[in-house]
């Protein structure tokens, strides 16, 4: 089965669909300016620790790279195209949390995701593959059951702020072969610590800005 990603313009209007394969070919991204809709989930437990995953070695883009809880794409299908209340993206996030991390749907009800913002970025992975995404940033605070899928995920861990800062320092210094995904790094550098404050205070709704599409490099 060919998974078809949702193609959008830079204002996030749906303009068509394309195979996941083509959406990640740098040649296609550059020649046809293919931009697809994506999401990044940041899941915190009740201790306000953030769940990170290390992408599996078999991933086409950014294998063995550490990143936020889950990053993927809504598909070009009715349930994941719903614009109202960003329900399509929420449905996709719930689907992929089960697929990648074995988190049951009842642990992550779609109405518990808070879409905080959108960002647009482009990031080559190697010479052939890369990302060009309009990425919805979804936050959720829930204690969940985990059963990571080894085809998708090499490792997982919860981190507090200090542990995340330590991880970033190691990645910056090239220690232990640690690498962070470019989209995760963009969120860390531009938004995460301020939003983490809101997670801890229970005031996430105050941080919501779904009007702006942040163009980040």
Sheet/helix structural class: alpha+beta
Largest pleated sheet: 5 strands, mixed
Overall geometry comes to globular
Backbone CA Rg: 16 Å
Can you put this structure into words, describing what you see?
This protein has a 5-stranded mixed sheet with strand order 6-3-8-7-10, with helices on both faces. A 3-stranded antiparallel sheet has the order 5-4-9. It has a two-stranded antiparallel sheet with strand order 1-2. β7 and β8 form a beta hairpin. It has helices spanning 20-23, 26-32, 78-81, 87-101, 161-173, 182-201; strands at 4-8, 14-19, 36-44, 50-55, 66-67, 70-72, 114-124, 130-141, 153-159, 213-215. The protein is built from 6 helices and 10 strands, in the order ββααββββααβββααβ. The relative contact order is 0.20. It is α+β, with helices and mostly antiparallel strands. The mean pLDDT is 95. The radius of gyration is 16 Å and the shape is globular.
Core attributes:
6 helices; 3-stranded antiparallel β-sheet; alpha+beta; single chain; 5-stranded mixed β-sheet; about 220 residues
Summarize the SSE layout with pairings.
Blueprint: E1 4-8, E2 14-19, H1 20-23, H2 26-32, E3 36-44, E4 50-55, E5 66-67, E6 70-72, H3 78-81, H4 87-101, E7 114-124, E8 130-141, E9 153-159, H5 161-173, H6 182-201, E10 213-215
Parallel strand pairs: 3-8, 7-10
Antiparallel strand pairs: 1-2, 3-6, 4-5, 4-9, 7-8
Task: Write a brief caption for the model.
Helix content is 29%, strand content 29%. The protein has 217 residues and is α+β, with helices and mostly antiparallel strands.
